[in-house]
Design goal:
This protein has ten helices and eleven strands. It is α/β, with parallel strands linked by helices. Strand 3 and strand 4 form a beta hairpin. The termini are far apart.
């Protein structure tokens, strides 16, 4: 679907933090590239940024060369913070100040994977819904109790957008592209990447228990779910059994049989 030439190109800045996760970064940038290809227009452009410029190494060990340091870039339509395993301890004051400056200028602020930690540290997630990878959800909520943190696949709230990581970045970007330029274009992107559907924000981050554990016994699944919900204060076997309508011995047999 060819877009009108009067549409202004949106310029994204991808802020690469040392140890960033490469899959969500690639998913996000590829969505923009594919939007340009399938529309026949330069709907999006992008610049790779880093705190100091030069090479930035992903968590996989792959090195990516940034186009410039943050101090050399003072105007963008949107910023996507690409964080990784150490994002929770990132405290580069110049970079945090730069993010706040861009936000004051009206740039949309986004994050993939653990980049949400950096936006939170910069004070840029206050008053909006946000999310993060399921492995880091509890710690993130504990570190930033004032934030409205959800378990959603991704969140787009006002001019903030965050996602859980991995291929969720592709779904988030396609949702934004659909809003900007129509569902037809977003569908072409999904098909190009053999993505059977565009997941919405309410899709689960994790597989359901039945699929993940390859178990179909309803009472055993119910027990495992209760155990997951009470990790900090584990329930005794007798209580788990009683709540599931089983004897303790029956529960133990189920665990031995299926797990």
């Amino acid at each position: 679907m060819k877009q009108s030439s009067i549409i202004d190109t949106q310029h994204f800045g991808f802020l690469l933090i040392e140890g960033f996760s490469i899959l969500p970064f690639a998913s996000a940038i590829e969505a923009l590239r594919s939007a340009n290809r399938h529309s026949g227009e330069d709907l999006y452009s992008w610049t790779l940024l880093s705190p100091e410029g030069g090479l930035v190494t992903a968590s996989s060990g792959v090195a990516c060369r940034s186009d410039m340091p943050v101090r050399a870039c003072d105007k963008l339509d949107a910023v996507i913070v690409c964080g990784g395993v150490d994002a929770h301890v990132f405290d580069n004051r110049q970079t945090l100040a730069w993010l706040r400056l861009l936000a004051r200028q009206g740039a949309k602020m986004g994050a993939v994977s653990l980049g949400s930690y950096i936006l939170a540290r910069a004070g840029l997630l206050n008053g909006v819904r946000c999310t993060i990878h399921w492995e880091n959800l509890a710690g993130f909520q504990e570190d930033y109790p004032q934030l409205n943190v959800t378990e959603e696949l991704f969140e787009i709230d006002a001019n903030r957008f965050t996602c859980s990581g991995g291929t969720a970045a592709l779904d988030m970007m396609m949702s934004m592209i659909a809003k900007d330029h129509g569902r037809e274009l977003a569908t072409k992107i999904a098909e190009n990447y053999i993505h059977e559907r565009i997941r919405d924000q309410h899709d689960h981050q994790r597989m359901n228990l039945r699929t993940r554990l390859n178990i179909s016994h309803p009472k055993l699944l119910n027990v495992i779910e209760m155990m997951q919900q009470n990790l900090e204060d584990p329930l005794p076997r007798s209580k788990l059994a009683a709540m599931s309508g089983l004897s303790t011995r029956q529960l133990e047999r189920l665990f031995r049989k299926y797990l």
